[in-house]
Amino acid sequence: MATNVGMSSCCLSGQLHNHATPTGSVKTIGDLSTYVAEPSPDQNINPKTLIFLVDIFGYELPNTRLLADEYAKQGFLVYVPDILQGDPLPISFLQNVEPPLKDQEQAGLIDKTKNTAIVGATLGTWLPKHREAVTLPIVEKFVDDVKKTATGKVGTIGFCFGGRYSILMAHGKVDAAYACHPSLVAIPGDFEPVTKPLSLAVGTKDSLLSDEQNDQIKEILDKNSVPTELVKYQDQIHGFSLRGDWSSDKDKKAQDDALKQGVAWFNEHLK
């Protein structure tokens, strides 16, 4: 198992990472096209299996695949299924849904109003197509398909849209779960039924999940009988662990620390 847990600057810098090439392959797992990142041969002895549950930008987002490669370097076998089934939102939407914090602070009222209108119009038509009644069965079936061939325990990592589904998998579907800045969560409904180890990485400046809500979630999880944790990242916005603005050293460190958090959690709870 590798011990150097950190994102290489050549792989993860800026918000959209197009200058590095993912090293995994695309295969069909069950019914879904899936990006697969495998550990090196010397690590590939009954590797722990992780399933990435993607955000609204889908499984082809370079950031997602490069992050999967980083987990594979730590000895995990990583699957990134296309749970959106070929219907991600375009990358151009990235600056509308969550611009960097410095851009948000400098934006005028007109820009903020325009962004709000774009987000509302776009998500208003997209989200119903990917509502829980549609997405949850897709995720559950994929987990079942992976578990049929997994040599060890299985965990899920979810980001934003996929973060909620990673939490739902901790209701008993997988052995451990990690959710980074989850969105559209139900409090307390998504958290009270947790029966498997669950870790959360949240930002204190997330526009989709307030610091007060994070405190409510932690209070619920603290009453749980299984290991849980909620780690707050100061001044981090929605999407920071996957699409951080690396022009800021603080944001760069937060993204790296979120990776370390996930690696440590799964090393402990997928034994």
From TrEMBL:
Coiled coil: none
Residue span(s) of domain Dienelactone hydrolase: 34-269
InterPro entries per the UniProt record, alphabetical: AB_hydrolase_fold, Dienelactn_hydro
Organism superkingdom: Eukaryota
Gene Ontology terms, MF aspect: hydrolase activity
Record protein name field: Dienelactone hydrolase domain-containing protein
Lineage: Eukaryota, Fungi, Dikarya, Ascomycota, Pezizomycotina
